[in-house]
Design a protein that fits this description.
With 383 residues, this protein is mainly β. The chain folds into four domains: 114 residues, Beta Barrel (Thrombin, subunit H); 85 residues, Phage tail protein beta-alpha-beta fold (3-Layer(bab) Sandwich), CATH 3.55.50; 81 residues, Phage tail proteins - horseshoe like beta roll fold (Roll), CATH 2.30.300.10; 70 residues, no CATH class. Helix content is 14%, strand content 42%. The protein contains seven helices and 24 strands. The strands form five sheets. Strands 1, 2, 3, 4, 5, 6, 7, 8, 14, 15, 20, 21, 22 and 23 form a 14-stranded mixed β-sheet that branches. The protein has a three-stranded mixed β-sheet with strand order 10-13-12, covered by helices on one side. A hairpin with a 4-residue loop joins strand 2 and strand 3.
Length: 383
């Protein structure tokens, strides 16, 4: 199905997803996909339905369609300006019928989440003796190779090996919950990146990606060059927090003070980080987490400080993908211009929601951007 240079491909199926039937594509009403760096990606697809013919006497034919059953796999591919991109590779978790109040108003809505959902279904009790955390994460991800998961695991900023005679890491939850808990320990994030090819997914475990070539700028108040429909900014001066505490190092059996002084997210995206400008008014958190060593305590405390500074300045808005020239990529950098000195510059794209209305020929995106303070660190951004 084509719209304004975009071709939409929908694959559905219980084990191997296949192209959606012509009846489903003909009645496709809308597609919405949300990507973020702290929660599973989600999708919602709406079809118009009707009751006609012999099957219509019994039920809506689409409700009997095996492609729309719960726990089927769904792959949505958007080809924008000849470049295909997998928007979501997920699992159906909910099927909703809305009969409507008049002829032709009935719809079926399928919703679901990305394939990491399958990592969050079974709680286990498991030991991971003598394994560093990145290797534990890699091992857990590889258990789900049937969903095309390819691990991309970034080494941790500090190493505190689990020596079996001292401690053994124990998992008492689902694989996804354990992976996310390990990510929070280092100020990392975990998410699934669909693609680059259908039936493949990259499982990323590491720090927020704040490097690389920024995407084309989001422009506002620039006349013909404006490419966003709306954009709002918020500066939370209460966001930054530092950590203080005292922990007992089990290896040396001595108390160790734990203190953080700055955010270590690199590279900095704001010229005037709020944790520097408002240092005297920053919050102070007590470190009360039990840790096996002083090294681990320092690392976890620094992760708390880094995460508190990630969302100090938040920009939310909406753009037209056709006018912008390409879909805005989440979990990457983007430039902003036209907002003035305080809010221009580079941002981290924390969340993006794709909204596609094939019949109306609309492809819009709602987005959330973040950084640690005000002022631009670059003189210009990529137009």
């Amino acid at each position: 199905m084509s719209l304004l240079g975009t071709h939409l491909t929908l694959l559905l199926g219980p084990t191997v997803a296949v192209p959606a039937s012509p009846l489903l594509m003909e009645n496709l009403q809308s597609v919405e996909v949300t990507h973020g760096d702290e929660q599973r990606s989600a999708f919602q697809i709406v079809f118009r339905v009707g009751r006609s013919g012999f099957l219509g006497l019994l039920d809506y034919p689409q409700l009997l369609d095996p492609q729309l059953r719960a726990f089927n796999r769904v792959i949505v591919i958007a080809t924008f300006n000849v470049i295909p991109r997998v928007l979501i590779d997920g699992i159906i978790t909910n099927v909703q019928l809305n009969p409507g109040s008049g002829p032709g108003e009935a719809t079926i809505t399928i919703t679901g989440e990305d394939v990491s959902l399958m990592m969050d279904r079974t709680e286990v009790s498991m030991e991971h003796p003598a394994l560093p955390d990145p290797l534990i994460v890699t091992t857990l991800i590889l258990k789900y190779a049937q969903y095309g998961l390819i691990p991309l695991v970034i080494p941790t900023p500090y190493i505190d090996p689990a020596i079996p005679v001292e401690r053994i890491p124990v998992q008492q939850c689902t694989d996804l919950q354990y992976i996310e808990a390990l990510a929070r320990r280092y100020g990392y994030v975990f998410y699934i990146i669909p693609g680059p090819f259908p039936f493949t997914n990259t499982a990323y475990w590491g720090p927020p990606i704040r490097a690389g070539v920024p995407q084309s700028a989001l422009s506002l108040n620039m006349g013909a060059q404006t490419n966003v429909r709306s954009m709002d900014f918020q500066h939370d001066a209460l966001g930054p927090a530092f950590v203080q505490g005292l922990v007992l190092d089990h290896r040396t059996n001595t108390p160790v003070p734990v203190v953080t002084f700055a955010s270590l997210r690199l590279p900095p995206l704001a010229l005037l980080p709020t944790w520097v400008v408002n240092r005297l008014n920053a919050r102070t958190l007590r470190f009360r987490t039990a840790t096996p060593s002083g090294i681990s305590a320092f690392g976890q405390a620094q992760a708390m400080t880094d995460r508190s500074n990630d969302v100090v300045v938040t920009a939310t808005g909406e753009l037209d993908a056709d006018r912008y020239g390409s879909p805005l990529e989440p979990r990457a950098l983007v430039g902003v211009r036209g907002a003035g000195y305080s809010y221009d510059g580079l941002y981290y794209v924390k969340e993006v929601t794709h909204s596609i209305l094939p019949r109306e020929g609309q492809y819009t995106q709602r987005f959330t951007l973040n950084r640690e303070g005000l002022g631009s660190t670059v003189p210009v951004v990529i137009p």
